[in-house]
Amino acid sequence: MSERFPRTSRYNPDWIRSSVSGGANSLWLAEWLTEAMSLGPGMRVLDLGCGRGASSIFLYREFDVQVWAADLWFSPDDRMERIRDAGAEHAAFPIHADARSLPFAAGFFDAVVSIDSFVYYGTDDLYLNYLARFVRPGGQIGIAGAGLTREIDGPTPEHLAAWWEPSMANLHSAEWWRRHWDRSGVAHVDVADTMSDGWKYWLEWQRAIAPDNQVEIDALTADGGRHLGYVRAVARRRPDVALDEPISSVPVTYVKRPLHRPRRRAQRFDAGM
Ligand SMILES: C[S@@+](CC[C@H](N)C(=O)[O-])C[C@H]1O[C@@H](n2cnc3c(N)ncnc32)[C@H](O)[C@@H]1O
């Protein structure tokens, strides 16, 4: 419960806890992210990397949108039960999908929302170009999750070393995301910022759901927001930019040719004799 997140505070803490699929409170992040987005009744929203689907139900209930609840690691069957129990089965559709190989038509979504998930695939330079294809021109793409308050250039700070793993190289600052998305040329970045006191919410949530995770709790406490925090970014697909069609095959026709060069005949120079 937190006054900072009035929408989330209406949900039963046991229900939120039972749908935990990562290290963050997905409703807090979804609430913060949607403060910077414009969602309304009937819009088609892709909740990309939705885990066990709490954020998808939140999006439906708070904004009356239709949600495609897509995730790779967690079963869509578990999500379906949660969605049904929340009375959302007519508007939230669980789907097993890899963000790198999405099974949707071009321009299908009004918005994509991704909670604490985008870092697993979205740091690829070409990923936004790929994802933007599924959003209508002018549609929104919003991400929120664990990240950095500033980039770490050089070795891992000593106070984070015990907790840090090589895979955390995917954590980035809001400024990094702004530049990354700006460079793509396919979207206009409206917002890229850091949650005020985000590290405190991160810590509070860790203490609530994983009080034995002392390594992470110690790292967050020692850091005190110097490097760790929550970041979000919201962009709109530029209507004036035509997106490349994805290349799935290049048609070619085989033409048989000899493997080796023909041998050259030795040239004779008789010098007129
Ligand atoms: C830290 S969990 C967050 C889950 C949920 N959004 C939340 O906030 O509780 C990261 C999620 O990203 C999803 N994910 C990672 N790589 C993915 C990919 N290539 N395609 C789709 N989802 C992916 C995982 O399945 C996982 O549920």
TrEMBL record:
<dbReference type="InterPro" id="IPR029063">
    <property type="entry name" value="SAM-dependent_MTases_sf"/>
</dbReference>
<dbReference type="InterPro" id="IPR041698">
    <property type="entry name" value="Methyltransf_25"/>
</dbReference>
<dbReference type="GO" id="GO:0032259">
    <property type="term" value="P:methylation"/>
</dbReference>
<keyword id="KW-0808">Transferase</keyword>
<keyword id="KW-0489">Methyltransferase</keyword>
<feature type="domain" description="Methyltransferase">
    <location>
        <begin position="45"/>
        <end position="139"/>
    </location>
</feature>
<dbReference type="GO" id="GO:0008168">
    <property type="term" value="F:methyltransferase activity"/>
</dbReference>
<protein>
    <submittedName>
        <fullName>SAM-dependent methyltransferase</fullName>
    </submittedName>
</protein>
<dbReference type="Pfam" id="PF13649">
    <property type="entry name" value="Methyltransf_25"/>
</dbReference>
<dbReference type="InterPro" id="IPR050447">
    <property type="entry name" value="Erg6_SMT_methyltransf"/>
</dbReference>
